[in-house]
Amino acid sequence: MRILVTNDDGISSPGLGALAGAVAAAGHQPVVVAPSTDWSGASACLGPIDDPGRVAVDEVEVSLPDGGSLVGFSAAAPPALITMLASLGGFGDPPKAVVAGINRGPNTGRSTLFSGTIGAVLAGERFGWSGLAVSLDVAPSRNDDLGSHHEPHWQSAADLAQTMMPWMVEAPPRTVLNLNVPDRPTSETRGLRWADLAPVGGVRTVITRRDEVGLCLDLVANDLPVPEDSDSDLLRNGWATVTPLAPTHAASGDLPLDEWATGWRSQPASGGVSD
């Protein structure tokens, strides 16, 4: 199966090659297309891009963990737009699924709303694909080197993604999973747990300084309390977590449509001409 491999950290991220290697090791054909620059926090946006009528694409060599490489593409576009372009045949025959990551930093709790990594797989879901978003719990910071004391354990996340891949491709279409893995060797990870989303993510944004021209921001590890056994809690305690991410499909019979329509139509006119 052709599987799109993308991310929001950009084409040069080592996590991208690790994930492409996992897709290949699982017996599938990775179609590697990633943003030319960092689009972290882009969610499922489709822009802005430099030229609304054209997306610049460059062929690049992507290094794999086994020392090999494959041909991929660097695209001047956010991850969700890359997913859409792939579905339109922009990089050969359209893939049948999408995996995104390995993200540098956790995507738990409300972070899932903002993540470009997750935006890529949710965009794929809209095109009928299943998807897997993969993140590694690397210490975050934009303004210092908290995440650079050691090389992240990309392979721990890649190996777990590879293990999950056969199930994902056989699952019903539009199955979307969010995988978070501790930044430690597999042997030191406590295991894998199914988890609900916490009300807060594993990282949070803080304002570090205000001046006359703006606000200075940084990302810090989240030390706020979280519900026991939620994704943020379990990851914090050394577990890898998997969470389903899918739109809410409320049955029409469960919605008070008649009540809403009556209230809506009874509202006084707020402008314009009423008939």
Structure in words:
The chain is of the alpha/beta class and 275 residues long. It has one domain (2-265): Stationary-phase Survival Protein Sure Homolog, Chain: A. 25% of the residues lie in helices and 27% in strands. The chain is built from seven helices and eleven strands. The strands form two sheets. Strands 3-4-2-1-5-6-7-11-8 form a nine-stranded mixed β-sheet, sandwiched between helices. Helix 5 (154-170) links the parallel strand 6 (130-137) and strand 7. Helix 1 packs across helix 5 and helix 2 runs parallel beside helix 4. The longest helix has 17 residues, at 154-170. Residues 142-148 and 271-275 have low confidence and may be disordered.
Beta-strand residue percentage: 25-35%
Using the coordinates shown, work out and report the CATH topology.
Stationary-phase Survival Protein Sure Homolog, Chain: A
How many separate domains make up the residues?
1
Give the averaged pLDDT, no decimals: 89
Spatial order of the strands forming the largest sheet: 3-4-2-1-5-6-7-11-8
Distance between the termini: 56 Å
Give the name of the CATH architecture: 3-Layer(aba) Sandwich
Look at the structure and give the CATH class.
Answer: Alpha Beta
Under CATH, the homologous superfamily reads Survival protein SurE-like phosphatase/nucleotidase
> Count of helices?
7
Unreliable runs: 142-148, 271-275
- Computed structural class: alpha/beta
Give the overall form.
globular
Overall radius of gyration: 20 Å
- State the total count of DSSP E strands: 11
Portion of residues in helices?
10-25%
The helix-strand sequence is EHEEEHEHHEHEEEEHEH
